[in-house]
């Protein structure tokens, strides 16, 4: 009996602490005007300017069609922009870890009776929440892309979105646990985000109707390889499937890759954080 | 700040992504690519370049919505072969593509669809015994599946490629029944034979279409067309 | 171990790789007392404090806080402690109130009491009108007050302050002392404070003098002063030969700082009479004062050196 109450008490404390850390991360983000500007400007830039700008080149007639794909370019890029708007804030949220160390707030947290793991999960969920909120902002642009939105497809979109949000928050936490300077972290984060985004079948389609052999004829082998090796590719593919009913890759492969893509960084970040 | 951001997003998403609608308005006419004939959806009027029929009526409500007149552009090659790229349809030839288009992977790949009506498969006539005709003048329908289903049901199958021929064959008893989508089945029955909807095949969604990337025009069409 | 002790430290040792920071320190802090840990920078104060608040695992020895072993029940120890660190530890982006509520959450203050206690604490440190300001907008002194209030939020039985007044102006410093005194008086909290400033230790109930990782003395300030017993006579003499001859005469009983000669005397009157008698030499004395020994004198007496470099910051 006392054992059980002790366990319940511990769980309650754990949840309360996780909630506290989570709430703090969210509040911090809401006061970071730089991040908010980025969160709103990125979708406009990519969907409204880049997407609309490139759409004419993907117009299809019958004979003129190079790629027979059931979407327009703006529809094609929109799920990728959702992922981009998840990646940035997710990694960025981990900066608070370096910040805390620099300005002493980590002492307040680590000298408290809160278990470190609760702090970790608070940070992870906080970063994930911030990322999800920014990713969902992009969905406001769905009407611009002429994608019919159903609530079911929105719910379905949450799963691959959460995958990316958590995975990149964990990657950020892992990096931040090992890095001491803001600049170093910023440089690292950027060199990670942009290639991961561009090599994810995000802004140019690897022709879906081609087999692997044919794809290798139209694209250099290294590019095809990198796109296939990039876990973000599968996240975007899952999102396209949910939103457009279209996918390029095998769903079982995609889901396996995505599960590993969440678990491995989370475990690595957890260990780096506990040290 | 966040509210301002959301308002900004809601505002920019209303920006026209292209000038297709403006072009149509400026020209004053909406050019519509159609197959030569598809009763009762599109019935050419002899001696004029006008069409009547259900889809013709739909086109008129679309043009009324936009505030322009219709210009019909019949495509003689439409439906001739299995590969639509041989039909001679060109984005430069028209603004709107109409004529028994059914929402499917193939049509969605080439066009931006505006679905307007979901219909069932139906037999014109009584398919009790004897030969059954299959007439599918719809772009995007899997004819092979319909044919397989008929064979699996034990019918002696005959293909038709012309509505008048199919009607004629039914009325003179050459076939006991003709399978098609509901509106066409009714036209073939011509009020004389019974029409029996079947649930053996899943229903199909009829649509009109714009070319890809002509989003503003597509939206204007959506506003004028009832949702299925 | 006595029941009334909040802290029990016995034979605490700690070394960082090659440096021995603590070499066997033992003491106990009675409940409700104001305990000052006085020593120069690098004496081992911070190591001792970190061992107390379970941020550091000592190499050897035993530490108990409120009867709880810091090694066996670190989480329970942390709950009974209120901490004020040497450097600021607030989240500048959160408001003052949010900082407090955050603290209440991670210290498991029941939900219903969080806001109420946060307001009570703000009232205590007189920061109510700043409740909704970002913590980053506060001055250093206000931040420190907030941190003291925050340390009280979860009703600890012991508040540990590591050099709480470092870098603050005189006014803020005085204010912080007022709050600390009030805490001890009104709430019966035990205060443990580390400092390298004598003035801060003077008002304590107990002063432990620590140097080079060892406890040099532990007693109440007046007793420590009485240890020296005698009065001190400060003579300012510019003439070097005169200074020299005096210091030779009182060898072992006098120390010299610049032109000031300090002589310990059991009976200062006798010494003065003797000085005045020699009229010619008496005129060479520029100034004279008779003082009670300060804790600094005790410190010098115990360790043979001054507490810290003479800077305006530390001196009275």
Automatic annotation (TrEMBL), chain A:
Family according to the record: Belongs to the ABC-2 integral membrane protein family.
Compartment annotation: Cell inner membrane; Membrane
PROSITE patterns according to UniProt: ABC_TM2
Regions that span the bilayer: 36-58, 73-99, 120-145, 151-175, 187-206, 256-273
Main subcellular location: membrane
Source taxon at top rank: Bacteria
Name of the protein: Transport permease protein
UniProt keyword terms in alphabetical order: Cell membrane, Membrane, Transmembrane, Transmembrane helix, Transport
Pfam families named in the record: ABC2_membrane (PF01061)
Record InterPro entries: ABC2_TM (IPR013525), ABC2_TM_bact-type (IPR047817), ABC_2_transport (IPR000412), Nod_factor_ABC_transporter (IPR051784)
Domain ABC transmembrane type-2: from-to ranges: 34-273
From TrEMBL, chain C:
Domain of life: Bacteria
Keyword Cell membrane: no
Keyword terms: ATP-binding, Nodulation, Nucleotide-binding, Transport
InterPro entries from the UniProt entry: AAA+_ATPase, ABC_transporter-like_ATP-bd, ABC_transporter_ATP-binding, P-loop_NTPase
Entries under PROSITE patterns matching the protein: ABC_TRANSPORTER_2
Pfam families with a match to the protein in the record: ABC_tran
Gene Ontology MF terms in the entry: ATP binding
Family: Belongs to the ABC transporter superfamily.
Descriptive protein name: ATP-binding cassette domain-containing protein
Organism from which the protein derives: Spiribacter onubensis
């Amino acid at each position: 009996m006392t054992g059980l109450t002790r366990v319940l008490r511990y769980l309650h404390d754990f949840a309360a602490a996780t909630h506290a850390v989570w709430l703090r991360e969210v509040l911090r983000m809401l006061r970071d005007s730089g991040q908010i500007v980025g969160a709103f400007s990125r979708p406009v830039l990519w969907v409204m300017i880049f997407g609309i700008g490139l759409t004419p080149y993907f117009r299809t007639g019958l004979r003129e069609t190079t790629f027979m794909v059931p979407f327009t370019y703006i529809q094609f890029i929109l799920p990728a922009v959702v992922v981009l708007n998840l990646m940035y804030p997710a990694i960025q949220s981990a900066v608070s870890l370096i910040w805390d160390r620099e300005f002493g707030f980590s002492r307040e947290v680590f000298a408290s009776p809160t278990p470190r793991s609760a702090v970790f999960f608070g940070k992870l969920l906080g970063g994930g929440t911030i990322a999800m909120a920014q990713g969902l902002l992009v969905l406001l642009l769905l009407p611009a892309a002429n994608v019919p939105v159903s609530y079911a497809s929105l719910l379905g979109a949450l799963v691959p979105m959460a995958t990316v949000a958590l995975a990149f928050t964990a990657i950020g936490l892992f990096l931040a646990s090992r890095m001491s300077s803001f600049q170093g972290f910023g440089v690292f984060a950027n060199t990670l985000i942009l290639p991961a985004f561009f090599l994810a079948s995000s802004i140019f389609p690897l022709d879906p109707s081609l087999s692997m052999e044919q794809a290798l004829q139209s694209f250099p082998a290294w590019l095809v390889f990198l796109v296939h090796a990039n876990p973000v590719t599968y996240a975007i593919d899952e999102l396209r499937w949910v939103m457009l009913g279209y996918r390029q890759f095998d769903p079982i492969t995609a889901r396996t890759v995505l599960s590993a893509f969440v678990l491995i960084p989370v475990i690595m970040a957890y260990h780096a954080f506990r040290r | 700040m966040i509210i301002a951001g959301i308002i900004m997003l809601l505002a920019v998403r209303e920006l026209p992504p292209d000038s297709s609608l403006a072009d149509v308005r400026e020209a004053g006419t909406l050019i519509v690519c159609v197959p030569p004939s598809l009763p009762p959806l599109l019935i050419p009027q002899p001696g004029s370049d006008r069409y009547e029929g259900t889809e013709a009526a739909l086109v008129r409500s679309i043009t009324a919505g936009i505030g322009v007149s219709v210009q019909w552009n019949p495509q003689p090659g439409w439906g001739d072969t299995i590969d639509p790229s041989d039909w001679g349809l060109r984005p430069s030839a028209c603004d709107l593509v109409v004529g028994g288009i059914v929402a499917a992977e193939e049509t969605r790949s080439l066009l931006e669809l505006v679905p307007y009506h979901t219909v069932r498969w139906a037999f014109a006539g009584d398919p009790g015994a004897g030969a059954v005709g299959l007439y599918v003048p719809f772009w995007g329908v899997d004819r092979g599946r319909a044919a397989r289903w008929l064979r699996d049901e034990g019918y002696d199958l005959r293909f038709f490629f012309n509505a008048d021929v199919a009607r004629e064959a039914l009325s003179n008893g050459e076939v006991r029944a003709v399978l098609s989508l509901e509106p066409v089945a009714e036209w073939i029955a011509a009020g004389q034979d019974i029409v029996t909807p079947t649930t053996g095949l899943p229903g199909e969604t009829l649509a009109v279409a714009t070319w890809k990337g002509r989003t503003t025009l597509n939206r204007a069409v959506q506003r004028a067309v009832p949702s299925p | 171990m006595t029941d009334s002790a909040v802290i029990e430290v016995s034979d605490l040792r700690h070394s960082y790789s090659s440096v021995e920071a603590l070499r066997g320190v033992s003491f106990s802090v009675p409940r409700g007392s104001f305990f000052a840990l006085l020593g120069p920078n690098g004496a081992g104060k911070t190591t001792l404090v970190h061992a107390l608040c379970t941020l550091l695992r000592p190499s050897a020895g035993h530490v108990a806080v409120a009867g709880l072993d810091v090694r066996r029940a670190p989480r329970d120890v942390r709950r009974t402690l209120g901490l004020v660190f040497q450097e600021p530890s607030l989240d500048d982006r959160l408001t003052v109130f949010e900082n407090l509520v955050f603290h209440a959450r991670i210290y498991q203050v029941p939900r219903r009491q969080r806001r109420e206690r946060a307001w009570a604490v703000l009232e205590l440190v007189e920061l109510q009108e700043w409740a909704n300001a970002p913590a980053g907008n506060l001055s250093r002194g206000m931040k420190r007050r907030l941190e003291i209030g925050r340390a009280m939020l979860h009703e600890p039985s012991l508040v540990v302050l590591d050099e709480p007044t470092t870098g603050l102006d005189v006014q803020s410093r005085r204010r912080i002392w007022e709050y600390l005194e009030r805490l001890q008086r009104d709430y019966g909290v035990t205060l443990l404070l580390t400092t390298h400033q004598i003035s801060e230790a003077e008002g304590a109930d107990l002063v432990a003098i620590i140097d080079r990782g060892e406890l040099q003395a532990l007693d109440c300030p007046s007793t420590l002063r009485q240890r020296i017993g005698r009065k001190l006579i400060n003579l300012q003499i510019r003439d070097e030969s005169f200074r020299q001859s005096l210091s030779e005469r009182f060898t072992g009983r006098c120390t010299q700082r610049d032109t000031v000669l300090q002589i310990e005397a059991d009976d200062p009157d006798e010494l003065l009479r003797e000085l005045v008698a020699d009229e010619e030499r008496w005129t060479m004395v520029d100034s004279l004062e008779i003082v009670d020994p300060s804790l600094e004198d005790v410190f010098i007496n115990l360790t043979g050196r001054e507490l810290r470099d003479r800077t305006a910051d530390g001196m009275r």
